[in-house]
């Protein structure tokens, strides 16, 4: 099985130099007993970006995020938060981070206001007034016990705690997983507004592509503990096409063949950079007949399928 | 003050429960002591109450012995498990519940220093536990002074050693440290409570054994009329009979002045050792 090359590896050398990376992983591997959670992960998250970290359950999304938080020790390689290795200097790394864990991990018997007070005792410079104002705008009563809040409200409290740290890097580990559509939309609206205002870097992990499509400007697809795709969302959309199985047009490369919702097979094709125009995607030779624009979900499905056992069988079929 | 308020609120059910149990036990000990004091008979009545006719001053001896055995005995039995229950209930959740309920992920990501987070909580709950246990420990000392009918309160005794006085507080802190360690390592409360409880029982037996056996050694001596002694853990009332003085083998009560501070030091040593290990180990602990 051949894993598609992440498009970042073919980045245009002539393009303006990218902003410095807020988060990096170099040759990162993480093993739990016989389970390999992360394998040779190399990634650099540009400052100021909102990156969607997408993959199925068990792909390694939480492990990667928790490694940046300093909760997991790399089995090999290293990670950095704004140049600081969280395992060697956790206090310095944490001082740069705001973290929203996978499950809303609030103290059930403490009120919302108690949580803000607690954060104030734990984190120097915590913006308690700002966090309270943010929750007040969402009509979340500060005197309410956390255990009595709805799932959406608990997620908003978790986000308010992370934003209140005024951290330059926000790590959000599937905060939308248990929320209804309206709560998801509210959560993302608050996140986007806050990040745009502060210029912070954010990573939002999810296994639902449509959740993060509107909020994020970058996409990382993680499958089987490996990075399958690392690209700007606009570039990922523009650089891929969907077709029925058949001949592959010139100027395009087959990423994977995968089953669509209706049971038919689809091919995800990637436009190759044109000759002499490094980074510029060439239109497919022979026109676009039979090719359709790929949705972000189809791009993700294609790259996940490419990394799964049996991908060769699909591709051959 | 905010931290104190929040830590107490986080653990309020257990804090209030332990405080109520301890205060209730202290009150019970004082009430029983007062009731025993009200019916105390001279020491010779232990045997003279069987005389016919019974001396008038011995009429209340049966009442005294019954209250001493039933009421005071129950208070002292409760004192035996108080430090175990209080230490485990307060120690295990301090880190164990935070890991189990995943609140540690919030606390440990907000606060750059886990050690400071833990030290603050250890100080608040540890000092609180010591203060709460001191009440029944002192009250049990008062009760003990009323128990032996021929006992001179000025004379030291090893009777009910470990169920009263500073040893109760020291044992409670040792169990607290064991609970913190088990909660930190296991990360789940129920298994941690079971393991900590078993470890605490083993510890109690170890230190109790030290108090009676080998160190200090038993010796042959003639006890005074008003002196109680411990013979490998059992109370020997023989010297209270009219045939005294006799020579017995045992540990004189005066040794309490040596045995008690020694166990307090051993318990506090274990406490410092385990809590120190927890403060170091928490940096490497993976939250759930």
Written account of the structure:
The complex is a heterodimer of chains A (about 325) and B (about 290). With about 325 residues, chain A is α/β, with parallel strands linked by helices. Chain A is about 30% helix and about 25% strand. Chain A has ten helices and 13 strands. Chain A has helices at about 60-70, 90-95, 110-120, 130-135, 150-165, 180-200, 210-215, 235-240, 295-305, 310-315; strands spanning about 20-30, 35-45, 50-55, 75-80, 95-100, 170-175, 200-205, 220-225, 225-230, 240-245, 250-260, 265-270, 290-295. Chain A has a six-stranded mixed sheet, with helices on both faces. A four-stranded antiparallel sheet of chain A has the order 11-12-10-13. Chain A starts with 20 loop residues before the first strand and ends with a helix. Mean pLDDT of chain A is about 85; it is low at about 1-15 and about 310-315. Chain B has about 290 residues and is mainly alpha-helical. Chain B has nine helices and four strands, in the order ααααααααββββα. In chain B, strand 2 and strand 3 form a beta hairpin. The longest helix of chain B has about 40 residues, at about 60-100. Chain B is elongated and about 80 Å long. Residues about 150-155 and about 225-240 of chain B have low confidence and may be disordered. The interface between A and B is medium-sized, with 31 and 24 residues.
Concise description?
By secondary structure, chain A is α/β, with parallel strands linked by helices. Chain A folds into 2 domains: 7-233, P-loop containing nucleotide triphosphate hydrolases (Rossmann fold, 3-Layer(aba) Sandwich), CATH 3.40.50.300; 239-316. Chain A has helices at residues 61-69, 90-94, 112-122, 128-137, 151-164, 181-198, 209-213, 233-238, 296-306, 311-316; strands spanning 21-32, 35-46, 50-54, 76-81, 97-100, 169-173, 201-206, 218-223, 226-232, 240-243, 252-259, 265-271, 292-293.
Give the strand content of chain B.
Answer: under 5%
Secondary-structure arrangement, i.e. CATH architecture of the largest domain in chain A? 3-Layer(aba) Sandwich
Cα-atom radius of gyration of chain B: 22 Å
Major sheet attributes of chain B: 4 strands, antiparallel
Label the overall shape of chain B.
elongated
Tally the structural domains of chain A. Answer: 2
End-to-end Cα distance of chain B, whole Å, is 29 Å
Q: Could you tell me the mean pLDDT of chain A? A: 85
Number of strands of chain A: 13
Q: What low-confidence regions of chain A span 5 or more consecutive residues with pLDDT below 50?
A: 1-13, 312-317
Residues in β-strands, percent of chain A: 25-35%
Shape of chain A: globular
Please report the first level of CATH classification, the CATH class of the largest domain in chain A: Alpha Beta
Alpha-beta content class of chain B: mainly alpha
Oligomeric grouping of the chains: heterodimer
User: What's the count of strands of chain B?
Assistant: 4
Share of helical residues of chain A: 25-40%
Arithmetic mean of pLDDT of chain B: 84
CATH homologous superfamily (4th level) name of the largest domain in chain A: P-loop containing nucleotide triphosphate hydrolases
Query: If strands are numbered along the chain, what order do they take across the biggest sheet of chain A?
Result: 5-6-7-3-8-9
Largest interface: A-B, 31 and 24 residues
